[in-house]
Amino acid sequence: ARISVIGQGYIGLPLSLLLADSGFNVIGYDVDSKLIEELSNGITRLGSEKKVRDLLLKHLGSRYFPSNDWRRLKGSDVIIIAVPTPRVNGTMELGMLMEAIGLASSAINRGGLIVVESTLPPKTFDTLLIEIGKAGLRPGEDVFVSYCPERAMPGKLIDELIFNYRVIGAKDPASAELSKILYGCFVKGEIEITDPLTAEIAKLVENAYRDVNIAFANEVARICEALGSDVRKVRELVNRHPRVNMLLPGIGVGGSCLTKDPLFLSWVSSENGYSPELINIARELNESMPIHYANLVDDFLRWKNSGSGIVCVLGVTYKGDVEDTRESPAKYLIDELMRRGYRVKVHDPIVKESFGARFYDKLEEAVEDADAIVIASDHSGFKEMDLKRMRELAGRDPVLLLDGRLIIDKEKAEASGFVYVSVGNLSS
Ligand code: SAJ
Protein backbone atom coordinates (compact mmCIF):
# COMPACT_ATOMS: atom_id res chain seq x y z
CA ALA A 1 0.00 0.00 0.00
CA ARG A 2 1.13 3.54 -0.72
CA ILE A 3 0.82 5.88 2.21
CA SER A 4 0.95 9.68 2.24
CA VAL A 5 1.03 11.91 5.28
CA ILE A 6 -0.12 15.53 4.95
CA GLY A 7 1.79 17.73 7.41
CA GLN A 8 5.39 16.94 8.40
CA GLY A 9 5.51 18.64 11.78
CA TYR A 10 5.67 17.32 15.33
CA ILE A 11 3.34 14.42 14.63
CA GLY A 12 3.34 13.93 10.85
CA LEU A 13 7.08 13.42 10.57
CA PRO A 14 7.58 10.82 13.33
CA LEU A 15 4.41 9.05 12.18
CA SER A 16 5.63 8.92 8.56
CA LEU A 17 8.95 7.51 9.72
CA LEU A 18 7.34 4.84 11.89
CA LEU A 19 5.23 3.75 8.92
CA ALA A 20 8.35 3.68 6.74
CA ASP A 21 10.03 1.62 9.45
CA SER A 22 7.10 -0.81 9.27
CA GLY A 23 7.89 -1.41 5.61
CA PHE A 24 5.58 1.05 3.78
CA ASN A 25 6.58 3.56 1.15
CA VAL A 26 5.60 6.92 2.58
CA ILE A 27 5.27 10.33 0.95
CA GLY A 28 5.67 13.05 3.56
CA TYR A 29 3.89 16.10 2.16
CA ASP A 30 4.03 19.61 3.56
CA VAL A 31 3.29 23.07 2.11
CA ASP A 32 6.42 24.45 3.81
CA SER A 33 9.00 24.13 1.03
CA LYS A 34 11.90 25.01 3.32
CA LEU A 35 10.92 22.24 5.73
CA ILE A 36 10.77 19.75 2.86
CA GLU A 37 14.17 20.88 1.62
CA GLU A 38 15.63 20.39 5.10
CA LEU A 39 14.07 16.94 5.45
CA SER A 40 15.38 16.00 1.98
CA ASN A 41 18.84 16.84 3.31
CA GLY A 42 18.33 14.71 6.40
CA ILE A 43 17.79 17.67 8.75
CA THR A 44 14.90 17.80 11.24
CA ARG A 45 13.66 20.75 13.29
CA LEU A 46 13.11 18.40 16.21
CA GLY A 47 16.66 18.55 17.58
CA SER A 48 15.81 16.92 20.91
CA GLU A 49 14.18 13.91 19.20
CA LYS A 50 17.17 11.74 18.43
CA LYS A 51 15.05 8.77 17.38
CA VAL A 52 13.28 10.88 14.76
CA ARG A 53 16.59 11.92 13.27
CA ASP A 54 17.90 8.34 13.27
CA LEU A 55 14.77 7.06 11.50
CA LEU A 56 14.94 9.90 8.97
CA LEU A 57 18.53 9.04 8.07
CA LYS A 58 17.60 5.34 7.90
CA HIS A 59 14.63 5.67 5.54
CA LEU A 60 15.19 8.89 3.60
CA GLY A 61 15.11 8.16 -0.11
CA SER A 62 14.46 4.45 0.33
CA ARG A 63 11.03 4.35 1.97
CA TYR A 64 10.44 7.90 3.13
CA PHE A 65 10.04 10.63 0.50
CA PRO A 66 9.48 14.23 1.68
CA SER A 67 7.68 16.30 -0.93
CA ASN A 68 6.26 19.74 -1.46
CA ASP A 69 4.36 18.71 -4.58
CA TRP A 70 0.70 17.85 -3.90
CA ARG A 71 0.54 15.85 -7.14
CA ARG A 72 2.70 13.21 -5.45
CA LEU A 73 -0.30 12.43 -3.21
CA LYS A 74 -2.26 11.07 -6.17
CA GLY A 75 -2.76 7.34 -6.14
CA SER A 76 -2.40 6.96 -2.37
CA ASP A 77 -4.11 3.99 -0.70
CA VAL A 78 -3.87 5.66 2.68
CA ILE A 79 -3.69 9.38 3.47
CA ILE A 80 -3.11 10.54 7.02
CA ILE A 81 -3.76 14.18 7.93
CA ALA A 82 -1.50 15.68 10.59
CA VAL A 83 -1.77 19.42 10.07
CA PRO A 84 -2.10 21.93 12.93
CA THR A 85 -5.55 22.97 14.15
CA PRO A 86 -4.42 25.95 16.22
CA ARG A 87 -6.18 28.62 18.21
CA VAL A 88 -5.79 31.94 16.40
CA ASN A 89 -7.20 35.20 17.76
CA GLY A 90 -9.56 33.44 20.10
CA THR A 91 -11.06 31.01 17.59
CA MET A 92 -10.39 27.57 16.14
CA GLU A 93 -8.42 27.87 12.93
CA LEU A 94 -9.46 24.97 10.74
CA GLY A 95 -8.30 26.34 7.40
CA MET A 96 -5.30 24.04 7.07
CA LEU A 97 -7.44 21.05 8.00
CA MET A 98 -10.09 21.87 5.40
CA GLU A 99 -7.45 22.31 2.75
CA ALA A 100 -5.88 18.99 3.69
CA ILE A 101 -9.20 17.14 3.52
CA GLY A 102 -9.80 18.65 0.08
CA LEU A 103 -6.38 17.46 -1.08
CA ALA A 104 -6.89 14.01 0.44
CA SER A 105 -10.31 13.60 -1.21
CA SER A 106 -8.92 14.46 -4.61
CA ALA A 107 -5.86 12.23 -4.30
CA ILE A 108 -7.08 9.08 -2.53
CA ASN A 109 -7.56 5.85 -4.47
CA ARG A 110 -11.07 4.35 -4.57
CA GLY A 111 -11.42 2.06 -1.58
CA GLY A 112 -8.62 3.92 0.19
CA LEU A 113 -8.43 5.12 3.78
CA ILE A 114 -8.26 8.71 5.06
CA VAL A 115 -7.20 9.09 8.71
CA VAL A 116 -7.30 12.36 10.60
CA GLU A 117 -4.69 12.68 13.37
CA SER A 118 -5.02 16.45 13.85
CA THR A 119 -6.92 17.34 17.01
CA LEU A 120 -10.54 18.09 16.10
CA PRO A 121 -13.09 20.24 17.91
CA PRO A 122 -16.16 18.06 18.65
CA LYS A 123 -18.45 17.50 15.65
CA THR A 124 -15.77 18.51 13.14
CA PHE A 125 -15.48 14.94 11.87
CA ASP A 126 -19.04 15.21 10.53
CA THR A 127 -18.07 18.36 8.63
CA LEU A 128 -15.09 16.52 7.14
CA LEU A 129 -17.38 13.72 5.93
CA ILE A 130 -19.56 16.32 4.20
CA GLU A 131 -16.47 17.77 2.49
CA ILE A 132 -15.44 14.31 1.31
CA GLY A 133 -18.97 13.83 0.01
CA LYS A 134 -18.74 17.07 -1.94
CA ALA A 135 -15.71 15.62 -3.72
CA GLY A 136 -18.02 12.89 -5.01
CA LEU A 137 -16.89 10.13 -2.63
CA ARG A 138 -19.29 8.23 -0.38
CA PRO A 139 -17.60 7.72 3.02
CA GLY A 140 -17.81 4.10 4.10
CA GLU A 141 -18.26 2.96 0.47
CA ASP A 142 -15.89 4.69 -1.99
CA VAL A 143 -13.48 5.74 0.72
CA PHE A 144 -12.99 4.82 4.37
CA VAL A 145 -12.47 7.53 6.97
CA SER A 146 -11.48 7.60 10.63
CA TYR A 147 -10.31 9.92 13.38
CA CYS A 148 -7.25 8.76 15.27
CA PRO A 149 -6.04 11.66 17.43
CA GLU A 150 -2.40 11.75 18.41
CA ARG A 151 -1.41 12.02 22.06
CA ALA A 152 2.36 12.06 21.87
CA MET A 153 4.37 14.35 24.08
CA PRO A 154 7.19 16.42 22.59
CA GLY A 155 10.52 15.18 23.92
CA LYS A 156 9.69 11.51 23.44
CA LEU A 157 7.54 11.45 20.32
CA ILE A 158 8.60 8.09 18.89
CA ASP A 159 8.17 6.15 22.14
CA GLU A 160 4.83 7.78 22.83
CA LEU A 161 3.54 7.07 19.31
CA ILE A 162 4.48 3.42 19.77
CA PHE A 163 3.47 2.74 23.36
CA ASN A 164 0.51 5.03 24.14
CA TYR A 165 -3.00 3.69 23.77
CA ARG A 166 -4.88 4.89 20.70
CA VAL A 167 -8.49 5.70 20.06
CA ILE A 168 -10.00 5.20 16.63
CA GLY A 169 -13.25 6.97 15.96
CA ALA A 170 -15.17 5.75 12.93
CA LYS A 171 -18.75 5.61 11.67
CA ASP A 172 -18.56 2.22 10.00
CA PRO A 173 -16.84 -1.06 10.91
CA ALA A 174 -14.72 -1.20 7.75
CA SER A 175 -13.16 2.23 8.39
CA ALA A 176 -12.46 1.21 11.98
CA GLU A 177 -10.96 -2.16 11.07
CA LEU A 178 -8.74 -0.81 8.30
CA SER A 179 -7.44 1.89 10.66
CA LYS A 180 -6.79 -0.65 13.38
CA ILE A 181 -4.77 -2.80 10.98
CA LEU A 182 -2.76 0.25 9.88
CA TYR A 183 -1.93 1.45 13.39
CA GLY A 184 -1.37 -2.13 14.55
CA CYS A 185 1.74 -2.09 12.32
CA PHE A 186 3.65 0.00 14.84
CA VAL A 187 1.48 0.78 17.88
CA LYS A 188 2.19 -1.48 20.86
CA GLY A 189 -0.41 0.13 23.17
CA GLU A 190 -4.09 -0.87 23.16
CA ILE A 191 -6.15 0.33 20.20
CA GLU A 192 -9.74 1.14 21.12
CA ILE A 193 -12.53 1.64 18.63
CA THR A 194 -15.36 4.06 19.25
CA ASP A 195 -17.55 6.58 17.43
CA PRO A 196 -15.97 9.82 16.13
CA LEU A 197 -17.71 12.17 18.60
CA THR A 198 -16.52 10.14 21.59
CA ALA A 199 -12.99 10.14 20.17
CA GLU A 200 -13.13 13.90 19.57
CA ILE A 201 -14.29 14.59 23.12
CA ALA A 202 -11.90 12.08 24.72
CA LYS A 203 -8.85 13.68 23.11
CA LEU A 204 -9.82 17.13 24.38
CA VAL A 205 -10.85 15.90 27.83
CA GLU A 206 -7.39 14.37 28.39
CA ASN A 207 -5.71 17.72 27.90
CA ALA A 208 -8.43 19.64 29.76
CA TYR A 209 -7.95 17.21 32.66
CA ARG A 210 -4.24 17.94 32.76
CA ASP A 211 -4.73 21.69 32.41
CA VAL A 212 -7.30 21.79 35.23
CA ASN A 213 -5.04 19.70 37.44
CA ILE A 214 -2.04 21.94 36.82
CA ALA A 215 -4.30 24.94 37.52
CA PHE A 216 -5.16 23.35 40.85
CA ALA A 217 -1.45 23.03 41.67
CA ASN A 218 -0.94 26.64 40.60
CA GLU A 219 -3.81 27.75 42.81
CA VAL A 220 -2.28 25.95 45.77
CA ALA A 221 1.03 27.66 44.97
CA ARG A 222 -0.67 31.05 45.04
CA ILE A 223 -2.32 30.16 48.36
CA CYS A 224 1.06 29.18 49.81
CA GLU A 225 2.56 32.44 48.56
CA ALA A 226 -0.23 34.39 50.23
CA LEU A 227 0.09 32.50 53.50
CA GLY A 228 3.88 32.57 53.61
CA SER A 229 4.30 28.83 53.22
CA ASP A 230 6.24 26.59 50.81
CA VAL A 231 4.26 24.68 48.19
CA ARG A 232 7.06 22.17 47.73
CA LYS A 233 6.72 21.00 51.33
CA VAL A 234 2.92 21.00 51.11
CA ARG A 235 2.95 19.03 47.86
CA GLU A 236 5.40 16.48 49.20
CA LEU A 237 3.09 15.81 52.14
CA VAL A 238 -0.24 15.72 50.32
CA ASN A 239 1.14 13.39 47.65
CA ARG A 240 1.79 10.80 50.32
CA HIS A 241 -1.97 10.45 50.64
CA PRO A 242 -2.96 7.36 48.63
CA ARG A 243 -5.61 9.20 46.63
CA VAL A 244 -3.95 12.57 46.06
CA ASN A 245 -1.66 13.32 43.14
CA MET A 246 -1.01 17.02 42.99
CA LEU A 247 0.86 18.11 39.85
CA LEU A 248 3.76 20.54 39.79
CA PRO A 249 2.96 24.26 39.95
CA GLY A 250 5.01 26.50 37.70
CA ILE A 251 5.49 29.80 35.94
CA GLY A 252 2.90 28.83 33.34
CA VAL A 253 1.40 26.16 31.14
CA GLY A 254 2.57 26.25 27.55
CA GLY A 255 2.73 24.05 24.49
CA SER A 256 0.35 23.80 21.61
CA CYS A 257 -2.08 21.35 23.22
CA LEU A 258 -2.98 22.29 26.78
CA THR A 259 -3.36 25.93 25.84
CA LYS A 260 -6.06 25.28 23.24
CA ASP A 261 -7.70 21.88 23.65
CA PRO A 262 -9.61 22.77 26.84
CA LEU A 263 -10.94 25.88 25.10
CA PHE A 264 -12.05 23.96 21.99
CA LEU A 265 -14.02 21.68 24.27
CA SER A 266 -15.47 24.61 26.17
CA TRP A 267 -16.37 26.66 23.08
CA VAL A 268 -18.14 23.86 21.24
CA SER A 269 -20.00 22.94 24.40
CA SER A 270 -21.12 26.57 24.82
CA GLU A 271 -22.38 26.61 21.23
CA ASN A 272 -24.45 23.58 22.13
CA GLY A 273 -26.10 24.89 25.26
CA TYR A 274 -23.74 24.27 28.18
CA SER A 275 -21.08 26.83 29.08
CA PRO A 276 -18.31 25.24 31.15
CA GLU A 277 -16.86 27.25 34.03
CA LEU A 278 -14.17 25.16 35.69
CA ILE A 279 -12.26 24.57 32.45
CA ASN A 280 -12.34 28.27 31.56
CA ILE A 281 -11.24 29.45 34.99
CA ALA A 282 -8.41 26.91 35.05
CA ARG A 283 -7.21 28.21 31.70
CA GLU A 284 -7.36 31.82 32.90
CA LEU A 285 -5.46 30.96 36.07
CA ASN A 286 -2.74 29.16 34.10
CA GLU A 287 -2.51 32.05 31.65
CA SER A 288 -2.15 34.54 34.50
CA MET A 289 0.92 32.82 35.96
CA PRO A 290 3.67 34.45 33.84
CA ILE A 291 2.11 37.88 34.37
CA HIS A 292 1.94 37.28 38.11
CA TYR A 293 5.69 36.55 38.16
CA ALA A 294 6.44 39.54 35.92
CA ASN A 295 4.66 41.64 38.58
CA LEU A 296 6.83 40.07 41.24
CA VAL A 297 10.04 40.90 39.39
CA ASP A 298 8.71 44.42 38.86
CA ASP A 299 8.02 44.82 42.59
CA PHE A 300 11.51 43.60 43.45
CA LEU A 301 13.21 45.93 40.98
CA ARG A 302 11.23 48.92 42.24
CA TRP A 303 12.19 48.01 45.79
CA LYS A 304 15.82 47.63 44.74
CA ASN A 305 15.34 50.97 43.05
CA SER A 306 17.00 49.72 39.90
CA GLY A 307 15.47 52.07 37.32
CA SER A 308 15.24 50.18 34.03
CA GLY A 309 16.94 47.14 35.56
CA ILE A 310 18.31 44.11 33.77
CA VAL A 311 16.35 40.87 33.91
CA CYS A 312 17.84 37.59 32.72
CA VAL A 313 15.34 34.97 31.58
CA LEU A 314 16.68 31.41 31.45
CA GLY A 315 14.77 29.06 29.17
CA VAL A 316 12.31 29.95 26.42
CA THR A 317 10.82 26.54 25.65
CA TYR A 318 7.41 25.60 27.02
CA LYS A 319 9.00 22.83 29.07
CA GLY A 320 12.40 21.36 29.76
CA ASP A 321 14.66 19.59 27.26
CA VAL A 322 12.52 20.24 24.18
CA GLU A 323 13.03 22.87 21.46
CA ASP A 324 9.33 23.70 21.25
CA THR A 325 8.53 27.33 22.11
CA ARG A 326 4.85 27.30 21.15
CA GLU A 327 2.77 29.23 23.71
CA SER A 328 5.75 29.28 26.02
CA PRO A 329 5.16 31.07 29.36
CA ALA A 330 8.60 32.66 28.82
CA LYS A 331 7.14 34.59 25.89
CA TYR A 332 4.44 36.19 28.03
CA LEU A 333 6.92 36.91 30.82
CA ILE A 334 9.42 38.53 28.44
CA ASP A 335 6.71 40.58 26.67
CA GLU A 336 5.42 41.88 29.97
CA LEU A 337 8.88 42.76 31.32
CA MET A 338 9.83 44.56 28.11
CA ARG A 339 6.51 46.42 28.10
CA ARG A 340 7.44 47.71 31.53
CA GLY A 341 10.73 49.03 30.23
CA TYR A 342 13.15 46.45 31.60
CA ARG A 343 16.17 45.27 29.65
CA VAL A 344 15.69 41.54 29.14
CA LYS A 345 18.58 39.18 28.43
CA VAL A 346 17.71 35.66 27.35
CA HIS A 347 19.54 32.34 27.22
CA ASP A 348 18.35 28.89 26.24
CA PRO A 349 20.69 25.93 25.71
CA ILE A 350 18.47 24.28 23.10
CA VAL A 351 16.82 26.93 20.96
CA LYS A 352 17.89 30.39 19.84
CA GLU A 353 14.69 32.32 20.38
CA SER A 354 14.15 35.32 22.60
CA PHE A 355 10.79 36.86 21.63
CA GLY A 356 12.23 40.26 20.79
CA ALA A 357 14.66 40.42 23.72
CA ARG A 358 18.42 39.99 23.29
CA PHE A 359 19.61 36.39 23.02
CA TYR A 360 22.92 35.20 24.48
CA ASP A 361 24.55 31.93 23.45
CA LYS A 362 26.37 31.67 26.74
CA LEU A 363 24.60 31.40 30.08
CA GLU A 364 27.36 33.47 31.71
CA GLU A 365 26.86 36.35 29.29
CA ALA A 366 23.12 36.39 29.83
CA VAL A 367 23.54 36.49 33.60
CA GLU A 368 26.09 39.30 33.54
CA ASP A 369 24.92 42.44 35.40
CA ALA A 370 21.39 41.06 35.92
CA ASP A 371 19.36 42.47 38.80
CA ALA A 372 16.95 39.54 38.59
CA ILE A 373 17.22 36.07 37.07
CA VAL A 374 14.10 34.09 36.22
CA ILE A 375 14.17 30.38 35.45
CA ALA A 376 11.32 29.78 33.01
CA SER A 377 12.04 26.28 31.61
CA ASP A 378 13.22 23.20 33.49
CA HIS A 379 16.11 22.24 31.19
CA SER A 380 18.29 19.56 32.81
CA GLY A 381 21.38 21.76 32.49
CA PHE A 382 19.82 24.49 34.64
CA LYS A 383 19.53 22.11 37.57
CA GLU A 384 23.32 21.89 37.83
CA MET A 385 24.06 25.58 37.39
CA ASP A 386 27.06 26.95 39.26
CA LEU A 387 25.10 29.35 41.46
CA LYS A 388 28.15 30.96 43.08
CA ARG A 389 29.61 31.77 39.67
CA MET A 390 26.27 33.17 38.52
CA ARG A 391 26.00 35.39 41.56
CA GLU A 392 29.50 36.74 40.89
CA LEU A 393 28.54 37.62 37.34
CA ALA A 394 25.16 39.19 38.18
CA GLY A 395 24.66 42.83 39.19
CA ARG A 396 25.06 44.60 42.53
CA ASP A 397 23.28 43.32 45.63
CA PRO A 398 20.53 42.29 46.07
CA VAL A 399 19.97 39.99 43.09
CA LEU A 400 16.72 38.08 42.79
CA LEU A 401 16.67 34.46 41.64
CA LEU A 402 13.08 33.54 40.79
CA ASP A 403 12.73 29.81 40.28
CA GLY A 404 9.70 29.36 38.04
CA ARG A 405 10.13 25.59 37.77
CA LEU A 406 11.15 24.52 41.28
CA ILE A 407 14.50 23.11 40.24
CA ILE A 408 16.92 24.98 42.50
CA ASP A 409 17.60 24.26 46.15
CA LYS A 410 16.67 27.31 48.24
CA GLU A 411 19.50 26.90 50.73
CA LYS A 412 22.11 26.57 48.02
CA ALA A 413 20.81 29.65 46.21
CA GLU A 414 20.83 31.70 49.42
CA ALA A 415 24.29 30.43 50.38
CA SER A 416 25.44 31.69 46.97
CA GLY A 417 24.19 35.17 47.79
CA PHE A 418 20.89 35.32 45.91
CA VAL A 419 17.56 36.53 47.17
CA TYR A 420 15.77 33.30 46.25
CA VAL A 421 12.04 32.96 45.75
CA SER A 422 10.15 30.28 43.87
CA VAL A 423 6.67 29.53 42.60
CA GLY A 424 4.64 28.85 45.73
CA ASN A 425 7.21 30.22 48.17
CA LEU A 426 7.95 33.92 48.41
CA SER A 427 9.54 33.92 51.85
CA SER A 428 13.14 35.08 51.72
N1 SAJ B 1 3.28 21.54 33.43
C1 SAJ B 1 3.20 22.06 34.70
N2 SAJ B 1 3.07 21.19 35.75
C2 SAJ B 1 3.02 19.84 35.57
C3 SAJ B 1 3.08 19.32 34.27
C4 SAJ B 1 3.22 20.19 33.22
O1 SAJ B 1 3.24 23.27 34.91
O2 SAJ B 1 2.92 19.12 36.57
C5 SAJ B 1 3.40 22.46 32.28
C6 SAJ B 1 4.64 22.23 31.44
O3 SAJ B 1 5.74 22.94 31.95
C7 SAJ B 1 4.22 22.73 30.09
C8 SAJ B 1 2.72 22.40 30.05
O4 SAJ B 1 2.35 22.18 31.39
O5 SAJ B 1 4.39 24.12 29.98
C9 SAJ B 1 2.34 21.22 29.20
O6 SAJ B 1 3.26 20.17 29.36
P1 SAJ B 1 2.84 18.64 29.52
O7 SAJ B 1 4.10 17.90 29.71
O8 SAJ B 1 1.81 18.50 30.55
O9 SAJ B 1 2.10 18.25 28.17
P2 SAJ B 1 2.42 18.44 26.59
O10 SAJ B 1 1.75 19.68 26.14
O11 SAJ B 1 3.85 18.27 26.30
O12 SAJ B 1 1.66 17.17 25.99
C10 SAJ B 1 0.29 16.99 26.27
C11 SAJ B 1 0.11 15.56 26.83
N3 SAJ B 1 -1.25 15.37 27.32
C12 SAJ B 1 -1.51 14.80 28.51
O13 SAJ B 1 -0.66 14.42 29.27
C13 SAJ B 1 -2.95 14.62 28.86
C14 SAJ B 1 0.39 14.59 25.68
O14 SAJ B 1 0.23 13.25 26.10
C15 SAJ B 1 -0.65 14.98 24.62
O15 SAJ B 1 -1.07 14.09 23.80
C16 SAJ B 1 -0.17 16.27 24.02
O16 SAJ B 1 -0.43 17.22 25.07
C17 SAJ B 1 -1.00 16.55 22.78
O17 SAJ B 1 -0.45 16.43 21.69
O18 SAJ B 1 -2.20 16.80 22.89
UniProtKB/TrEMBL annotation:
SUPFAM superfamilies tied to this protein: 6-phosphogluconate dehydrogenase C-terminal domain-like, NAD(P)-binding Rossmann-fold domains, UDP-glucose/GDP-mannose dehydrogenase C-terminal domain
Residue ranges of domain UDP-glucose/GDP-mannose dehydrogenase C-terminal in the record: 312-410
Keyword Oxidoreductase applies: yes
Uppermost EC category: oxidoreductase
Reaction equation(s) it catalyzes: UDP-N-acetyl-alpha-D-mannosamine + 2 NAD(+) + H2O = UDP-N-acetyl-alpha-D-mannosaminouronate + 2 NADH + 3 H(+)
One GO biological process term: polysaccharide biosynthetic process
EC number: 1.1.1.336
An example Gene Ontology molecular-function term: oxidoreductase activity
UniProt keyword terms in alphabetical order: NAD, Oxidoreductase
Signal peptide segment: none
Any single Pfam family the record assigns to this protein: UDPG_MGDP_dh
NCBIfam families per record: NDP-sugDHase
Family: Belongs to the UDP-glucose/GDP-mannose dehydrogenase family.
Protein name: UDP-N-acetyl-D-mannosamine dehydrogenase
Organism of this sequence: Korarchaeum cryptofilum (strain OPF8)
